[in-house]
Amino acid sequence: DAMVIQNPRYQVTQFGKPVTLSCSQTLNHNVMYWYQQKSSQAPKLLFHYYDKDFNNEADTPDNFQSRRPNTSFCFLDIRSPGLGDAAMYLCATSREVEGNQPQHFGDGTRLSIL
Amino acid sequence: GQNIDQPTEMTATEGAIVQINCTYQTSGFNGLFWYQQHAGEAPTFLSYNVLDGLEEKGRFSSFLSRSKGYSYLLLKELQMKDSASYLCAVLDSNYQLIWGAGTKLIIKP
């Protein structure tokens, strides 16, 4: 089945220790998104890629970086995680940005900071 | 600013019908999505409305009124597995998805 896969499902890191979350897709979608979601809150868009074009949201902290080496993979790097970065990180894809193209989500990575 | 409003929490009984409302104020409109999200899991797509009216998909229906900036998700014949959060999201004029915080639906036997 075509899908969006995130690894790992649960990630624990130490305060200030860099961490990388990964996402892969077999849907061959042009667009990939990274969201941060805290409990009982709306998903917050961090970045999205249209193909290789990178789009950073204005309020995404510099501590967050992203890479998309090819169509199938996308990575979220948190350079120096703080306690406030503990959240669920969701990767999503869509065929196009416009119109009735729903976003397809991976199962998410729940990040805990010690 | 852009804003999506949904009730924080609703409770309904198994077998009954529930309507979850969503109002929005956004810069432009290119469609409205409803997603279901079980606790600790990712959102899954339920419906998309871009024209006024009702879209029916099995036990779930979604309604849109663009002039009123209003949508609802109607769930019929509620089952315990429908206990989840339901998120309303609007695609604005820049094709950015603006998300509501979600409505937590609790189903009681």
Provide an overview of this structure.
The complex is a heterodimer of chains A (114) and B (109). By secondary structure, chain A is mostly beta strands. Chain A is 0% helix and 51% strand. Chain A is built from no helices and eleven strands. Chain A has strands at 4-7, 10-13, 19-25, 31-37, 44-50, 53-56, 64-67, 73-78, 87-94, 104-105, 109-113. In chain A, a hairpin with a 2-residue loop joins strand 5 and strand 6 (53-56). The model of chain A has no long low-confidence stretch (mean pLDDT 92). Chain B is an all-beta fold and 109 residues long. Chain B is built from no helices and eleven strands. The mean pLDDT of chain B is 95. The chains are: A mainly beta (114), B mainly beta (109). At the A-B interface, strand 10 of A face strand 5 of B.
β-sheet strand percentage of chain A: over 45%
- N-to-C SSE string of chain A, H for helix and E for strand: EEEEEEEEEEE
The amount of helix of chain A comes to under 10%
Largest sheet of chain B: 6 strands, mixed
Mean pLDDT of chain B: 95
List low-confidence stretches of chain A.
none
Structural class of chain B: mainly beta
Distance between the termini of chain B: 40 Å
SSE order of chain B: EEEEEEEEEEE
- Based on the structure, what is the oligomeric state of the protein chains? heterodimer
> Mean pLDDT of chain A, nearest integer?
92
Number of strands of chain B: 11
**Helix proportion range of chain B:** under 10%
> What percentage of the residues of chain B does DSSP assign to strands (E)?
over 45%
Q: Which pair of protein chains has the largest interface, and what are the residue counts?
A: A-B, 20 and 23 residues
